[in-house]
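Late entry, written up from scratch paper. The run itself happened at the end of the previous shift, but nothing got recorded in the book at the time, so transcribing now.
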Amino acid sequence: MNNRQLLEVSEYVCLGLSVLGTIVATVTQQVVYAVIPLSLSIALNLVNRPKFNYSQSQIDQLQTSWQNITEEFYQVEKTMNTSNQRLEQIEAWRQQLSQIIDQTIESAINERLGKLEVYKQEISQVIDQKIQISMQKLSTEFNVVNQEMQIVNNRLQQLDISLESLNSNVDKDEYLRNIAELKTELSQISQQLQVFNSRFAEIETSIKHGNESNQQQLAELRDNQENQSQEFTQIYQQIEVVNSRFAEIDNSTQKLHQTILEQNQSIGEIKEKQESESSQNNDIFDSINNRLTKLDGLTELDSLFTALVQPLQVKNKSNSQTNPIPEQPSQEREEIPTINNLDSIGNSINKSLKELDVLTELNTWFNPSHAANKSSIEESDNYQETLEVIPTTSSSNDNSEKLIFVGTLKGHENKVLSVAFSPDGRFLASGSDDTIIKLWDLTTQKHRTFEGHGESSWSRGINSVGFSPDGKFLVSGSDDKTIKLWDVNLGIEVFTFTGHEERVNAVSFSPLGKILASGSKDKTVKLWSLETGKEIFSFKGHTDDVLSVTFSPDGKLLASGAGGNDKTIKILQLAENKVKTLTGHSDWFGGITSLAFSPDGKTLISGSQDKTIKLWNLETSQEIKTLSGHSDHICAVAYSPNGQILASASKDKTVKLWSVASGAEISSVKCTDSVISSIAFSPDGKILAAGSGDTTITLFPIA
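Output as recorded:
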């Protein structure tokens, strides 16, 4: 780079520095930032310029540039002066404005403080007036409440006097218990009144202390007054309830007097009837004893009765091995001589007994069960004599069991949902949608009624019943979400298990009778301890309503079946705490409605909404076979005690028997024109009971 180029570069650098300094001086209002770069540029030019030879034109140019720079410097100085003047003016304005603001704020604050003082005085006057008014109201209300309490106390004294007079007239323990309950209720009412008195005293003390409190406490007092008004309204309501309760007690005491008089009259009538009946029975027994001493032909009558019984036994045996509908005319002709023989023997016996006038007594001695059955049928009309029989699809050479109609038990008012035999076969329990359980004595066809389900719920149907292994207790599951335990001998409720959130569909006792299983619409299976009455296990593996639960004969397994959205059978291995799942029923209508273990515990049968019955091998968890024949949902299945026969009930209104070995249908019968909801074998396997939707229970003997 030559000297001339260096000179030009230095000039440009000096010019740039001067411009930059001018800008900085303008922004910061400091002249030094513009003077320093300008002096540096001049010094640089003075140092470098003497070394070179300048022409006149260059010197003129340098002078003009210097003049321009000086002019710019003067202009910058002017702008700085004007800006300083502006800043001084702004500062003066700011001070004036702050003074004005301070004055206005001070005047506004003083004005507001004056107004607040006036408001404070007015509010204190209003509050004092309101407190005086509220104190007057409270005093009047206290007086009214005290008067009402005096009335209540007088009423209580009158009631005590009436109860004492009533105690002197009542001799029955039941009525004494009712009076004791009334006394406890009255004591509770008196305790509530004492609580009210203590509450009133607290209110009085709080009001006295409220006058000495500050403004914040006055605000709290207003809130307390609102709460107290609410409490007073509640107290008035409770007093009205107490008065209504007294009226009810008066009515109940009057009714109690009436019932005592009526029952005394009825007891007197019953005693008179019993005395007359006992005298008649004594006369009958005396006449029987006198006539029996005159009987010399008792041995002959005994032989005649034996001759009568033997042909009947032969006839029953032959009928049990054939179809209930005769197929050939020759069978009818062969039975005629036997019937004629029986008629002749019966006529001879009746003739001889009529001569002795002891027909009823001897028939009762010879066949007491017949007499009991006859009397119960005439009194309660528990049997029907018509039945529609459907021919079976099995072979005519098959000598297996057939369903033959025996009779129908009547007593329920709605469909029968569950039936179960007692372990000794004496009783049959039935649960119905009419909210009650009936216990039938099969020797007399009489029944007892257990009531208690659904007392606090509109939904009361009895979905499942079952006996304990010793036959002393009966368990029932209901739509009211509870499970009840009943004493069979006493006929009373022992305990109620609560814990399910929806209706209980199925219940089952363990073989030892110490654990109870239940399945519910809440999709759970629960285990209950009968010793503690508490829930000990809850299984939540199903995804739909649990419709059936049952224990294996050894008690080690618990099977449960669920509805159509689940369609599975869960096998709970209780000792190992493991679960197996059996699947195979239809994907569309595969809800498991009923389950039953075989007597040896190796096989499980399941009835489903897909119209089929399946047999399962529990060791391999595999399906053994499928039984098809029903035309609608399977409602219930049952194993016979010998493990050779299966029974099934369906919505198609039929009951069917199946051979376990071959899987063939043995017999089919239509006992009613309604859905068959439940079935059960008697412990000896000789009777099959079926509960149906027409409110009846049909009994079938199985040979």
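Residues 296-402 have pLDDT under 50 and may be disordered.
(Scratch paper discarded after transcription.)
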